[in-house]
Amino acid sequence: MSLDALKNDLPDYAKDLKLNLSSLARETDLDDQKKWGTFLASAHAVGEPKTLAALSAAAEEVLSPEAVAAAKAASAIMGMNNVYYRFLHLSKNKEYGSLPAKLRMNVIANPGVDKGDFELWSLAVSAINGCGLCIDSHEAELRKHGLTAAQIQTAVRIAATVNAVAHVVAAEN
């Protein structure tokens, strides 16, 4: 499935989502690797098959195999971390935060792509998964890597749009 086919599959009531997909695909605040890696990581995070197929095809036209693997890895590791760190953040018992996580997270240290790109994809997935602790952590790292507020916001706009598109597609099928 292509990006155009995905947009065409959206019902009329989701016209804004169609328009957002189009404008975000043309977005220039992020270079192509950052932008399409964000699309791919977000699509993997939501996991809806048609959305994932369309955005994977579009991303794989632009991204290197290493970037494709890293975007998927960002989604995978944040799928775990967002649950764990959201629990730490929301739990009234702060003792859990003093315990070692004892979860492997090696890909964060060596993602196989630019660390800033991986952090951006991790932030997008964290926004989808609703982990405030992870959002704050990745946003701070992105600022250290020189990303602007506009660039970070663009990644979150992509995540928000991909999430909404996936929910509409799932509801309509």
TrEMBL record:
GO terms for biological process: cell redox homeostasis; response to oxidative stress. Disulfide bonds join 131-134. It is an enzyme of class 1 (oxidoreductase). This is Alkyl hydroperoxide reductase AhpD. Antioxidant protein with alkyl hydroperoxidase activity. Required for the reduction of the AhpC active site cysteine residues and for the regeneration of the AhpC enzyme activity. Pfam families: CMD. Its EC number is 1.11.1.28. It comes from Maricaulis virginensis. Gene3D superfamilies: AhpD-like. GO terms for molecular function: disulfide oxidoreductase activity; hydroperoxide reductase activity; peroxiredoxin activity. It catalyses: N(6)-[(R)-dihydrolipoyl]-L-lysyl-[lipoyl-carrier protein] + a hydroperoxide = N(6)-[(R)-lipoyl]-L-lysyl-[lipoyl-carrier protein] + an alcohol + H2O. The gene is ahpD. It comes from the Bacteria. The active site is at 131 (proton donor), 134 (cysteine sulfenic acid (-soh) intermediate).
